[in-house]
Specification:
Layout lengths: L2 H16 L4 E17 L2 E19 L2 E7 L4 H16 L35 H19 L3 E19 L4 E17 L8 E8 L8 H14 L9 E7 L4 H11 L2 H5 L20 E3 L22 E5 L2 E2 L6 H7 L11 E2 L7 H8 L1 E13 L5 E12 L2 E14 H4 L3 E4 L9 E2 L3 E9 L2
Parallel strand pairs: 7-12, 11-16
Antiparallel strand pairs: 1-2, 1-4, 2-3, 4-5, 5-6, 7-17, 8-9, 8-11, 9-10, 12-13, 13-14, 14-17, 15-17
Helix pairs in contact: 1-2, 3-4
Amino acid sequence: MSKDMRRICEYVLQTAKSVGADDCGVGYSKRRFVEVQYRERKPENVKEATTQNIGIEVYVNGRYSSQSTSDVREAALKPFVTNIVETAKLLEEDPYRSLPDPKYFRDMQQIDLGLADTNYNSITPELRHSMAKDLESSCLDAGGDRAISVTSQVYDTFQEETLLGSNGFEGETQSTVSYVFVEMTAQDEGDRRPNGYHYAVNRTMKNLPSCEDVGKEAAARTFELMGGKKTDTETLPIIIENRNAGRILGGFIDAMNGWSLQQQRSFLIDKKGKKVGSKVFNLIDNPHIKGALGSRLYDGDGMATKKRDMVKNGILEDYYIDWYRSRKLGVEPTSGSTSNLILPPGKRSVAAIMKDLGKGILINGFIGGNSNSNTGDFSIGITGTLFENGKLSQPIAEMNISDNHLKFWHKLAETANDPWKYSSWQLPSLVFTDVVVSGV
């Protein structure tokens, strides 16, 4: 734990106690990021910044208040903390507000999750610019005379965080993230200008795919959108591409959240232990995967994390419930958010699956849309490509799928063998049967 960061956190705890707080939690974070963006084969935007922030929460006579500041000088912190405590005294009493019981972090695992790139400090400005150039050039070259414009971006960040609580909690993390992105706008028929993109993200820059491959993929994805049009409304099998599967799943996860449950705004109320999808529908939350983007030893409350089956063989096993909502609901807490969310992959490729489905739609993007966590109804615009007997045919656009989550996940028939690795949600392409796709 950084000595200076710990010293300042300890000072905040001591100050809060001395001016009347019953309990206090403090989190001190520092972050540095660099971003290089290219357009028209030259730098368009270059940013570099270092920020710091202290978040403080206090508990006074059953009342709670939280604030943050970037001024970490002791001379500034003392009046700031005093003001938070005095503000809390004026608020309404909330008997459910408290720091977590220490039993929820006593067994926190002490393992190296590999969240920080040990070579991060060797990343040079020259390397970032070279990567941004290569991203743009490869996309432009692949786009040829159909490319109108290309924008590329290289981004990396280093963050360290120290957390202390008057309940005895101590936590520290250091993490890095490196990210490459490129998008292309192309000329289509008439005045249509489809826009496609591709990206990759990893804890370490050396483990990113080549910039040439990312650029080529962005161009290919743009071309997939060329000539897109509406087709007749039909009931078809659909395949939702891996990198877009989280957009649909997000509406289901929202209903698993403790806030939705406590507010009686979840279609999953009283569904624990009941079937909510097909046997293919499995969700595993695993926070201890080394180097993964969602890995963590403790959650936002400071509670120790552990691997959990959230949905198993279509049966809802658990919810995402933070400490505060667990007290209001009178249940055991789990965690208030996802870590690494895994839907186990299958054994077949998307290409192999398409051959057995006859006619269907491969969905490669979503547009707009909404999901109602109270009823489970959702509606969302799609882009993609029709396929028949395993062969892609007509690109489609301006079409829509609408369903209800409590019915939709029962239609999950298969998962492909291609989990998306550039996210904390490691989801494969998902195959659903008998979905109404609305068009003309």
